[in-house]
Specification:
The chain has helices at 18-29, 59-64, 72-91, 141-144, 153-168, 178-189, 222-236, 247-250, and strands spanning 2-7, 38-44, 47-53, 57-58, 94-95, 104-107, 110-113, 120-121. By secondary structure, it is α+β, with helices and mostly antiparallel strands.
Length: 259
Amino acid sequence: MIALKQTNSPHPEEGIPTTALREISVLKTIQHENVVALLDVVNEEGKLFLIFELGDLDLKKHMEGHPEGLPLSEIKRFTYELLSGVDACHATRLLHRDLKPQNLLLCNGTLKVGDFGLVRAFSVPMRVYTHEVVTLWYRAPEILLGSKHYTTSVDTWSVGAILAEMATSKPLFPGDSQIGELFQIFQVLGTPTEATWPGVSKLPDFKQTFPSFQPSGFDHLLPKIGADGVDLLKKLLAYDPAERISASRALQHPFFADM
């Protein structure tokens, strides 16, 4: 049993879409147990088929079966496997840029990162990227505030949002627009200032007139993921991208000590 992804070009005369070529090249580059495996590519009559290992379901559907949140053992394991897959991407100098539960497949119980249609290679210094990436609820605040320069930390922010959602089966920041998403984040973490996030006031879409929210924090998650889980979550969701924990460092966090 395999999964087929058919790619149709809106302009067949122009050849294979760049998003498909990018996804193919990325998946040929990364071979990791927590990244979905590309088994083959078939081009027939102008239609391109990507052949993947088959996932049983995605993380979003799995969470729908647990309305009170996943068991702690699953939260830990899935977060660890997600971080491992993300770390493999970053180690090969790739930003995923679209991490969300719908793009995380469960294959025989193992979580695998999938859907690399928005992936980008990065270099030092970081290039300018479009900020219209990452599904709204998992989008890092620097992207929401218009930053054109961003790093692997946009992926680790998404991991933090997904970790919190696994604990409650509800999205942590369910905004319905860019500004609504920002205010959802501000209500949990507090409205950022130069003291909490140096340079934030220089970002293109930052407004001095933003409401001043006090942080509500993550105490509601303490009973489920414990103090170590909340500590990891705070490090993944640090405002300042330079202070946000990397995937490789997060894998060493005490939250995973008993695994």
